[in-house]
Amino acid sequence: MEMVVGGEGSEEAIFVDTAADEFDSCSAPLKQVTDPVVYKLVRARGATVTCFECIGLVPATDDELMEVENLLELEKSDLLSVSDVVDTVGQGLDKDDTSEKTSREFKGSSQTKNAEVDEEKLNAQLEEALPTSSSNPNNTQADESRNDVVEPNLKVVLSKIGSAGCKPNFSLLKGEINLDKLTIRELQETFRATFGRETSVKDKLWLKRRIAMGLTNSCDVCVTNFIINGGQFVGKKEETCKNLDCEDPIAGEVCSEGDGIPAAGQKVMEDTVDGSELRNYLSESGHGSDDMLERRGAKRVRKPTKRYIEELSDKETRECNKKPMPSTKRLEQHKASSGSLVRTAWGAHSGAIVTRPDSIGGSGVRVPYVSRVRRCRPRKSVVALTNFQPSEEALMRKITECSKPQPCSLGGDKVVEPKAALIEEPLAPEEEKENHCLTGMSEFSQDQEPTDKDSRGNILLDCIADINSDDKASTVPTMKGGMRRKHHRAWTLTEVVKLVDGVSKFGAGRWSEIKRLSFSSHSYRTSVDLKDKWRNLLKASFASPPSDKGMNPRKNAPSPIPAPILMKVRELAEINGQVHRILKATSETEDNSGSSVNENNRSGYL
DNA sequence: CTTAGGG
DNA sequence: CCCTAAG
């Protein structure tokens, strides 16, 4: 906000200067329409355009605007709070009033620090911008009219800013005169009518400026934000609550889709209420501002909340496009951010200026995305509904994690991320079993850190597995709103071995330790998973006596776990004194005999 | 956050 | 696996 004010303050002056030089010399057939209102609008736009051109950022939402403004502030290294700005401006104007400063001086007085630098910069940009717009054959009528208006109005400003302005040889506008004729008190009244709040400012000029601005933009100077697309102004955003014009609650969201194409921007501008307002002003140029003032003042309405705005835009979209909102919209709205926003937000992090398709104005406009969304990573609930794969991050992470992608047997058909064309490994468990079963069996005490090949293979598998899990199975939406986790990731033998090994090393219960040291490569398998698995292992090892012959009613032995492992598990269970619990848990049907004996027996069997 | 235990 | 109570 503040930046807008400050920026306008300084840029206005600059604008005036440059414009004065430029237009004075060649100031040709200037329309004698010298409506300050029009000028204000134009000026504001011009200023903002240059402003945003500097940084190449385009605000789209409130937050984004804030950010942009912050950037602007950084860029200009001139930070002023709203009040500061206001005060400063007022003082500067005061000075002007009394000491007849030139516009340049005014600028200096209000924005001392960056005066020269900014001026040069902006001058260049202005010269670049103005001729561009005027010379561009694609320019629409609005554009031209804008330029037409700019010139005379610049002069108006000149005469306005300094009472002895550089170029006082331009007649004032009716509106301006009217305002001029008002007393401070009247101006204050007008201000109140315009902005709906009292003002104690006694500076005439400031009041006039504010009023004119308010009339033009129907919002506080400090809260008017503009949306630029490709350097083209395409819309403005009203930030303040109190001053949003009820007519254009969505105008702020409007933006052009044609990137950098002036025509598109113009079109959008015209399509929006904002644009229409502009045209109105253009056509109405010459109207006394007092009328306007009253009219506008009466209309001023409290700005809807952000969410309300979005809803409005949605409505607008429906009406205009007759394109029903996606079903996901609802939830997205609930998340206080539009779905398109969310979706494109991700892509935004890669490009310089990313635009997000927005529905505002029903023009399928693209709004630049700055950084509003994704305060936090989209969590469970959203993910599935937005169709968005949360994998991007995880995916990349995994990819980087994987030393080399390796041409693993990619038989899977689940291509998750087109970008990273990663395919699910078809039979992770099986393959792994094949690979490591022997190792696990033979070198049962495979040491802590997986062997080289083992680790590599595991890592790769993990990569894939992780990707898979993160991608498609990370969270599965449940009808009732619950989210369940991935598909059962069967415990592979190697995993079991690792687990047992880890338990033997660290002891049961140190699951986090085990996970860290023995399952470092298996990013899935939380410590809880380990615990659960261990519990199951214990149960299995005690409950299912692989021993006896007739003891196997279920032929497809549900315990693919090799006996040695079970034995080991038992041993460990003994060591950890978990036997009792296990036995208790296993419904006492076990042979409660001395575990050691039984164990020995079993070990003999196995 | 980690464990332990029930579901 | 999920969930949750308990440290």
From TrEMBL:
Main localization is: nucleus
Sorted UniProt keywords:
Nucleus
Where is this protein localized, as stated in its record?
Nucleus
Region of interest: Disordered: 90-148, 283-302, 315-336, 541-560, 585-606
Bias (Basic and acidic residues): 93-107, 287-296
* Domain HTH myb-type, chain residue ranges per copy: 483-542
User: What segments bear the compositional bias annotation Polar residues?
Assistant: 131-142, 592-606
Q: Which GO terms describe its cellular component?
A: nucleus
Domain of life of the native organism: Eukaryota
Q: Which residues form the Myb-like domain?
A: 491-538
Q: Which Gene3D superfamilies match?
A: 1.10.246.220
The entry's protein name is Uncharacterized protein
